[in-house]
Structure formats: structure tokens, C-alpha cells
């Protein structure tokens, strides 16, 4: 039989205050989506550490019996020992009310957890814990399944589109552009085969970005771009895949619009084709990066996070550099007008994408 109460432990039993009844009632996410303050009754033993960890948006505040004990000065991950504040707070019937409040949005209560690892490290070495501690980990099963799906997709593409597959991924043909330029990439995204290759790349990159953001959410801070629950990794991968695919499709319209403004319509097809070709070629190596993530993330998560971020940055940077090199063969980029156009269509979007994907934490 499980105990009804547990000291120095935060639970998922959150409450909200209803003005009509003037009572605290159980929190229901669908019903109380606009509540900016969430509460929880805690049993605190001041003699024992009560360590919690959480990811907080800027200006998030914590209260203990209506006394503010914490305010986040920036969006980041935090750890707090509630026992340090319990001695200055008078309990109500042996309990204390923890309040999480944000002035402009509902707090991310899913990011709160008991910092068991830190508590264990601070405990005496000769003292054995009485409660069972469960090690926290990132569920990697969705990543494994999607990695297998990507392998099947590339295998299916190789069988059904052998000429296009060889032209894209055969390193011996890497310097021969005519075969691709005159083939299915003559006008990118104009054939089903090119669309399928782009979708395969989108899924591969989405898988890696989802792994990066899940890793960040687990060890550093809550992802601010798409606030999808860590447990729903499948939804996160689907959202990222769709976003990447739409970005690649809409980039062509963006280039057409900017080229019309700059009067450089003749470079649009070459520029877009080289960008897509480079991404597709480098994208075939992304599943190997995922294998590195799956095999080493448990042991060195910070290092794997850094390596993954660097590789994603290099992927996008090399695509932009390739565009500069190829366009320079058509017309020198030392031309200030052309250079300004490439900065507006390649460099600035690259900086924005890197900010959203890599440097948003």
C-alpha cells in the first residue's frame, strides 16, 4: 500500500484557485489553460534537503505560503532547496503551499521534478536511502523507430529511383554537376522524386533537431520554439519535419521575391538548386549522427549535445558556402549588388535558423 503523503517531494497533483467557490480545486489542463498561478500542498521536513529542479520562463515566481522565495531573471534551468526557506515560513496544519506564478502565461509545471541525484550526492556516504530512487532518462525508443524508418525510406528511394540516388550520393560524381543539373534537379521540387528526397532529408534533420531539443529540455532548459512535451517525441518530430519541408519549399518563393527586388532573376534557379543539392548530399550523413547520439548520449549528454549542434551548424553553413561558390562562377560575388542579394537571401536566413535551432538556449 502506497503512503498517502510523502515528505520533501513534489508531485503532479497541482491545484488552481477558483474565484466562484474560493477554493483550491484539482488542476485540469483543458479546463484551466488560462490559469497563471498553480498551487501544490507540500509536507516539508526542514531538517532534510528538499531539492527540486525546474525549467522556468523569465519572470516566473515561486511562493511558499504566499511568501516569494524565487524569481527567474532569465529563461533557464534552475535548482532550489525548499528546506532553506521552510524555517522562515509558518506551516498550515503541517503543510506548506507552493505557488508557481507567471505574469503573462501559464507556468510549465511539467518541467518540475525532484532533484533526486543532487539529494543523493549530498547525503552522508554511510547513510543508505530508505526510498527507491529511479534514474531519469530520455526515452530513446521513438528515435530508434524513426531511424529505422529513415533507413527504409532511403532504401526504397535507392530501389525506385536508382539514377537519381546515384547522381545525388555517389561521391565520385560530386564534382560533375551536369548530370544533376540536366536531370531531376534541373528544376528542384518539380518532380515526385525530388520531393521525396527532400521529405527524406526533412525527416532526418527533424529527427536530429528533436533529439537536440529533447536533450536540452532534459539537461538544460525547456525548448521555447515548439513547447511540445518530452513524452510526445513523435509529435515533435512530425512538427519539425513539416516545418523543415515547408521552409525548403517556401525558400524558393522567397528567392523569387528577393530576386525580383534586386533584379537578379537569372540566379534564382542556380542558387536554389545548389542549396537543395548540398543539403540532400550532406543529409545522408545525419542518420550516422543519430547513431552517435543514441549510443553515447546516456554517458556524455553535454558533449553529444555540443557535437550535434556543431554538425547541424556545419550542414547549413556548407550549403550556404556552396551557393556562394557556384553563384560566383556565374557572376563574381565581389559585385556589391550581388553580394548584398546573397547576404539577404542566404546569410541572414542562416543566422535566423541557427538562432532558432542551435543558439536558442
TrEMBL record:
The membrane-spanning stretches of this chain are 137-157, 195-216, 237-255, 275-294, 306-326, 338-358
- What keywords is this UniProt entry annotated with? Membrane, Transmembrane, Transmembrane helix
Q: What is this protein called?
A: DUF4271 domain-containing protein
Which Pfam families did the record assign?
Answer: DUF4271 (PF14093)
UniProt xrefs under InterPro entries:
DUF4271 (IPR025367)
Q: Which organism is it from?
A: Pontibacter cellulosilyticus
Amino acid at each position: 500500500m502506497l503512503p498517502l503523503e510523502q515528505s520533501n517531494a513534489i508531485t503532479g497533483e497541482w491545484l488552481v484557485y477558483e474565484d466562484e467557490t474560493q477554493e483550491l480545486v484539482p488542476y485540469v489542463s483543458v479546463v484551466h489553460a488560462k490559469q497563471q498561478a498553480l498551487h501544490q500542498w507540500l509536507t516539508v521536513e526542514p531538517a532534510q534537503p528538499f531539492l527540486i529542479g525546474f525549467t522556468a520562463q523569465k519572470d516566473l515566481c515561486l511562493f511558499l505560503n504566499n511568501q516569494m522565495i524565487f524569481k527567474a531573471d532569465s529563461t533557464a534551468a534552475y535548482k532550489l532547496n525548499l528546506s532553506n526557506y521552510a524555517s522562515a515560513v509558518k506551516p498550515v496544519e503541517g503543510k506548506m503551499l507552493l505557488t508557481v506564478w507567471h505574469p503573462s502565461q501559464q507556468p510549465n509545471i511539467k518541467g518540475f521534478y525532484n532533484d533526486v541525484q543532487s539529494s543523493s550526492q549530498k547525503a552522508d556516504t554511510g547513510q543508505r536511502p530508505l526510498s527507491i530512487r529511479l534514474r531519469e532518462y530520455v526515452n530513446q525508443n521513438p528515435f530508434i523507430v524513426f531511424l529505422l524508418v529513415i533507413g527504409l525510406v532511403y532504401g526504397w528511394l535507392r530501389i525506385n529511383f536508382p539514377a537519381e540516388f546515384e547522381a545525388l550520393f555517389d561521391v565520385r560524381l560530386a564534382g560533375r554537376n551536369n548530370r544533376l543539373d540536366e536531370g531531376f534537379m534541373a528544376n528542384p521540387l518539380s518532380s515526385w522524386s525530388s520531393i521525396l528526397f527532400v521529405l527524406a532529408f526533412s525527416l532526418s534533420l527533424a529527427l536530429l533537431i528533436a533529439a537536440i531539443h529533447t536533450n536540452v529540455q532534459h539537461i538544460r532548459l525547456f525548448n521555447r520554439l515548439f513547447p511540445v512535451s518530452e513524452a510526445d517525441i513523435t509529435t515533435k518530430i512530425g512538427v519539425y519535419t513539416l516545418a523543415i519541408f515547408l521552409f525548403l519549399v517556401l525558400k524558393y518563393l522567397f528567392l523569387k521575391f528577393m530576386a525580383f527586388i534586386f533584379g537578379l532573376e537569372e540566379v534564382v534557379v542556380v542558387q536554389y538548386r545548389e542549396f537543395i543539392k548540398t543539403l540532400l548530399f550532406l543529409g545522408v550523413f545525419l542518420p550516422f549522427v543519430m547513431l552517435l547520439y543514441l549510443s553515447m548520449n546516456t554517458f556524455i549528454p553535454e558533449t553529444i549535445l555540443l557535437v550535434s549542434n556543431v554538425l547541424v551548424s556545419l550542414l547549413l553553413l556548407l550549403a550556404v558556402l556552396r551557393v556562394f561558390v557556384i553563384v560566383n562562377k556565374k557572376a563574381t560575388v565581389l559585385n556589391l549588388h550581388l553580394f548584398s542579394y546573397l547576404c539577404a537571401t542566404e546569410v541572414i536566413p542562416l543566422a535566423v535558423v541557427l538562432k532558432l535551432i542551435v543558439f536558442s538556449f
